[in-house]
């Protein structure tokens, strides 16, 4: 830890940039069409890759005949899995999170022995045009011997089926436990009442609007690979390409993430396709481009969720929660994606205490291989699934006690003076004022009046429902040491460089990678604040491993807190070096130098001053620096937080359902979020809006399904409901601000919060509306038909 | 996304288009291409050649014709190349064939309405699309030309199955015809499938009334069934009945009774049973809207 | 030390994409006017308009987000009407006037609509934005005072996964208000 932190709240005045709703500088190229996404980039002589994928869910590859395809005009090469093996590259897509007893089967770039899910990459064609490459795909003759398949995570481990991997005969990849089983059993035995719920959290397809893409250019003379790709974490991709698939030294790989059209988790991972793109370029010595079609995205982008859960909650009559017990079967898909193991284990079970003081928690998760697309983190990853479970349990618990669900929530909230709060699910919450946020949300809808209206309307056979969702999120995915203890094969730090250029402008190089979050604006605000400058003085560079030395990337709501924290710390170090130069040139002691609006001046003598930009120039001139000081004015910072951050809040939805048709109308949606200090309220609100949209999507519209043949049924954009504008209401947003005490800028993060909150909130509202029909739970997506059936049958589905 | 290769011919007249179709085995017509291109991109269809009639002039006129003369049946004539936007915005269609205007306005989204044409839509025979129900309810027809001459295909003869219509491979739809009746009202109600935007259930209704009694009625469904269909039981219930809530209730209850269980579509979003249930409800809604009866 | 593996298949190194393509494809010469600029080009029949705009003419503003005409990221105006350029063959647009997102701003000056998108944070990743702008423009051309519901219907053919649409609706509504004040 540097001494810069100590001066973080030194009372120096910043520029006022932090906290302002500053318009995004990155918007202009995106608004005029000049922003460059991966597929917009071309190199001279670019060739095009198309990938032959299996149409079987599970089959042995008997033979791959590429002869006809190779003979086609314009086809440069056709490769099979054997070709990749023969090339001698490491050819391993690695997992990045180990768990005790984890079975880690082989995961190759192109399949050689078996295909294990529909969409498995089997062969690759490189041709002069995309059309020819795709034409050639059809000329590849693959002979399969079909094998029995399984797509459901419970069936996979409970039914006697042919295993997805021979290494895991029972299809169990891991059997994970968290919490104290004995204490939980005791709590349940001792409690007045027990309520339970069986629920499914269906597969979500992330649906970033830009499908994944890659453009690889291997330079034979320098033996260096340049790879433009749709990446949330270029450095992580560089590392995995080096250590996992290609075996090139890291310094011979440049990964560039240009404009990236959304990610939501799906662009974190190292998939076979981008590795194959790079490998083909190395084979051919020509640039190779691969652009996924949307149906390829649906078949290969890691899906999210896929949980089958039984949850139980033990309560006393007065509403005190005594314990929570959860058993989950989590579908992992056919292969372990990098964080496919962490997401349903540590990212899930650890949040089961939600906002509540729950003395005993036990969770068991069976991670199951299935013949489906790999599952990994999708916006809210693990935390969304966990909060969904605890919030559903609180609702069914309230129903069991005949208590208002808000009252039950209030009775169990962690109080402000209990922080740092150590939960029974192994987390230490940093700070929170849960009741304040909940009350604010309830105030927005006038909760008591709304309950009254609900009673009146029921007399007219109209059914409104009020859903309340309290959430916490464990954000940031660090510190590294803790992550390592839990099995992470990567660090949890973030890195940046804050650099004054010699004429006074500032360049911030950040190891995170934006996909729409507005880092170029918020990071400039952070640096501007620390350096007393305007955001216009600051340029932010992301997404290029040759320009930015190191980084972990953007996921887990970590960029503002960990990436932003690193920038703030780096900027403070730069400022303190500048202060020492100022003291030297103003011929006074460092302690006598005050800093205001970018100006260093001698205490009590405001006219004896030097601007930080002038000092930057001096630092690079190097003519007159303090004894022993090196020239230059830049700092490289690695920031490894001391804890996760814990955003929280309460969302409230008011819906009306029509039991006759099952139609659901969202009348109001109120979101109160506490993401700690707010760098840019406009951007925070945008993150909340988008998060709610995805949470509502999961609750009401989305959900991937497999048919009896193991084929993805929802394989096109007209078969999978990404919500469109008329399917979503206007949202009402508000904030409370409870700074994170350990973050250098008090930030907690906001990227995933609203997705975590919205799903249980909407389900709670619909189920609440159906209370007169004795419905206490409905699985997602809650379609009009499921509402109609529930109203008809009283929830006996 | 990537289609198989094909030959492309742009026709400069209907006659030329007919010749091109005749000369090229397996050739298909396109105009707006909104029916065919998506299915070619998914590999569901792979014609060897396309004959483009999208640029032909005079085939997009929307006009009300005077009564029968010179063999013309009168009523409304909508050129096959009229886009859904043009139909939705046409005063003539709105006034005389409201159900068709409703359907055009509800179809797809603005870009699809701008790009797609009515002739192509109906000839394509997508049972999830909106125009089939109003065409059936309005007792409309298609004018088609082939090398053998012209003929008229009644709406009731048009829909033969999923993506199968009575329009033959060598025929070109030139116009949609809808009879008009000053004493009739019509309308179309769509329940949108949240996934595809097509009709989960679409009901078209045409009624002739003297204000008190329903003299004649036609009710038709699209989206809910594997083939767009008239609903004769509902029609029978309506015809001769008073304009009343009771009539609407009874007719709606009859809506699906002439259809077999297998006639209803079942998919990820909605089962056949649910669609059958909705058919009655949506028939009721359409009737209330068209008859302007207060609930 | 890592060594690049040997080449497995023969390549046609040195031959340009253009040469290879001309050799085995039947192409049609077409001319289109894009944002006021006339272009002559040769296209395969199966070349989609969006592909021609992006790969042949370099107008990469319109994007490809799906293959079913659903997402609307490829929206452009052809002869004044917005369509999805993935649902039209390039060869069909011979002689057409096409407007893309690149044609909206005048010499780098954003239009009121573009400014409003920036002001209201109506974009995040920006991938849907070109199509969204074209659809919004088309709405405002025919309706100078749209309701929020009308705005939502006008952008129904344009999917956005980032914003939840609200700020897009705000941006379009504010543009209508601003243009209304000027009249």
TrEMBL record, chain A:
Residues 1-41 are annotated as: Disordered. The keyword Nucleotide-binding does not apply. This is Molybdopterin-dependent oxidoreductase. Keywords: Molybdenum, Oxidoreductase. It comes from Natronorubrum halalkaliphilum. Residues 32-148 form the Aldehyde oxidase/xanthine dehydrogenase a/b hammerhead domain. It holds the Pfam family MoCoBD_2. One of its GO terms (molecular function) is oxidoreductase activity. SUPFAM superfamilies: CO dehydrogenase molybdoprotein N-domain-like, Molybdenum cofactor-binding domain.
From TrEMBL, chain B:
This is Xanthine dehydrogenase family protein subunit M. The keyword S-adenosyl-L-methionine does not apply. InterPro entries: CO_DH_flav_C, CO_DH_flav_C_dom_sf, Diverse_Substr_Oxidored, FAD-bd_PCMH, FAD-bd_PCMH-like_sf, FAD-bd_PCMH_sub1, FAD-bd_PCMH_sub2, Mopterin_DH_FAD-bd. Pfam families: CO_deh_flav_C, FAD_binding_5. The lineage of its organism: Archaea, Methanobacteriati, Methanobacteriota, Stenosarchaea group, Halobacteria. GO terms for molecular function: FAD binding; oxidoreductase activity. Keywords: FAD, Flavoprotein, Oxidoreductase. Residues 1-183 form the FAD-binding PCMH-type domain. It comes from the Archaea. The keyword Oxidoreductase applies.
